[in-house]
Amino acid sequence: MNILLILLWLFIEFFSKPYISQKRSILTLNRVDFIRLHRCNSNHFGIIVCTNNRNWEQFAARIDEAVTAEETLQGKLIRVVRPVT
After folding, report:
1. Residue 18 covered by a domain
2. What pLDDT does residue 19 have?
3. Contact 47, 26 (CB under 8 A)
4. pLDDT of the residue at 3
5. Across-strand partners of 80?
6. 7 has pLDDT over 70
7. pTM of the model
8. Which of 9, 26, 38, 77 has the fewest CB atoms found within 10 Å of its own CB?
9. How many domains does the chain have?
10. How far apart are CA 17 and CA 27, in angstroms?
11. In this predicted structure, what is the pLDDT of residue 56?
12. 17: containing domain
C-alpha cells in the first residue's frame, strides 16, 4: 500500500474526524499536505492554507478578509498567500 494513502487514512481517522464532528475549520501553514487532503476528500468544514507571513497584523487581516468573503467554509479550500514585497 502506498505510504501516502496510509498517512492520509491516519490523518482522517485520528485528526480530521474530531474537527468534522465539531464542525471546525482548520488553519494551517502545511499547504502541500492539506491541499492534497482536500483534493482527496472535500468532506470537511473548511481548510485555510497560508504562506508564512511574519507581519502578523497583515497576516490576520488577510485571513479575515478571505474567510469573511465566503458565505460558508464547508467543503472549501481557502488559500491565503503572503503579498509580494
Report:
1. yes
2. 57
3. yes
4. 61
5. 50
6. no
7. 0.73
8. 9
9. 1
10. 15
11. 87
12. 3-80
